[in-house]
Amino acid sequence: MVFQTEKFNEVVKTNIGETFGTLLFMGFQEQQVFEDNKPVDGKFTASHVELFSEKLGDSYEFKLPNDFEIINIPLMAEVVVEGKGSPVIYSFTNRQTRNGQVTEFKDYGISVKIEGLKTKTSQSQPVKPDPKIENK
């Protein structure tokens, strides 16, 4: 038996920053959007984001909200998780194709769900060349 919940677990407190440390962006797990069992050209949604934890030395997938829009983040850019996070069991529609027949079925996963994601902006100024040094 599987207990499914799409809301945040208020009992288990998860401090993403303390647990995972500095997070580096590795990519979104994009899924093709389907309408009437046919793929919509050029339309994708992001269900998960893969982040590298410098503290733990490994990459992890975090579940994104259903209405999350894909944003442009450079590879290996430092990112910050917005809001709270908690462990969650979620369901998703999986598709399998055999002999040209598309079969849809419900599947389940467990992950850490986060509210949002943004890049960490650096407050440091770019390095300026020293005017005393001449290029010869």
TrEMBL record:
Which Gene3D superfamilies does the entry mention? Conjugative transposon protein, DUF961 (2.40.50.390)
Which superkingdom?
A: Bacteria
What is this protein identified as?
A: DUF961 domain-containing protein
Q: Which organism is it from?
A: Streptococcus parauberis
